[in-house]
Amino acid sequence: MKFDLKTPYYKLIGLALLIYLLRFVDWERYLELVRNLKLLPFVLSCLVVFPQMMLKTLRWRELLADLGVPCRDGFYQLNLYYFAGLFFGIFTPGRLGDLIKFKFLETTDLKKAAAATFIDRLWDLLVTLLFGILSIIYTFGISARIILLSAGTGLLCVLILRILKFRAGNLTRFLPEALSGISMDYRAFLNPKRQCWIFAVTAVSICFFYFRMYIASIALGVELSLLQIFLVCSSVSVAVLLPVSVSGFGTREGTVMLYFARFKLSAAVAFAFSSLILALTLFDGLIGYLAYIAIPARNRE
Asked: Can you tell me the distance from the alpha carbon of 70 to that of 72, in angstroms, rounded to the nearest whole number?
């Protein structure tokens, strides 16, 4: 069968990487860590998603207001929509499925709602990339290795853009609708105080995820500082966005193992920690699905 970039075969890159990494895992040690998982810290790490999503919902509501979107939904309904978007985002490259949440809004101006949702997602991506870059520089230093890594990343991005060309049909159905909706008063976006506030909310909401993983590491019995968790998770958050795997399999494990090796921790510990990230992601998806079915049928049509 002829290989075609329009087929999902490129996702096998992440799965092939995962299979390769499994050979380094001491499975007895891994199972020991899983069996000794402390339940209370793990449950707490799951629950942190709720204040995290409340912050993201607050930002989305403010962006909707900046664009002058006539929205009749209250904060509770917006929070449901945001969780529902989280569910769809888990199963799409770059978590683009998260953008679907604007379709649930009770508004007469879907173009502006799409624009606000696009900007909301863009803020997450930009701050996530910023944290990821800072993590790499802090951990590995600005050296020839970073230059090589940057060059390799650039080449990978070119490959990804070529792979994503076939998605143009899907993207062009959304992006013009979103971008054409940006016809509001630009003063809110040119106001430095306003943008600093949105940046702060975005940064804190992302740090909630890092804090979740810090609590999860305590549940696992892994001795890592909050700074080390920040370094690992900020890079993991970038790695799972690469559309070369299914739900981040392979890229997530490879990134965690790279950093844990730097911290003198075994592959078994790294794989157990990566499994916790996956478990929390699946928990978020479950809550997102429950939120989706809780949305009135008229909003889901």
From this structure: 7
Instruction: Return d(Cα 235, Cα 134) in angstroms, integer.
Output: 9
How far is it, in rounded angstroms, from Cα 153 to Cα 59? 30
pLDDT profile of the chain (301 residues), mean per 10: 47 81 90 93 94 94 84 87 86 67 80 85 88 83 56 53 46 50 52 84 93 93 89 87 75 90 91 92 91 81 66
Q: Would you tell me how many other CB atoms lie within 10 Å of the CB of residue 54?
A: 16
Q: Where are the beta strands (DSSP E) in the chain?
A: none
What are the helix and strand counts (H, E) for the chain? 14, 0
Measure CA 20 to chain center. 24
Which phi and psi angles does 202 have, rounded to 5°? -65, -45
Token digits for 33? Answer: 């860590």
Contact in structure between 116 and 64 (CB atoms under 8 Å): yes
CA distance 190 to 42: 42
Please give the Cα distance from 246 to 287 (Å, whole number): 20
SS3 25: coil
Cα dist from 172 to 92, 106, 159, 182, whole Å: 16, 23, 20, 16
* Three-state secondary structure call for residue 107: strand
Q: 34: which residues sit within 8 A by CB, 6+ positions away?
A: 272, 275
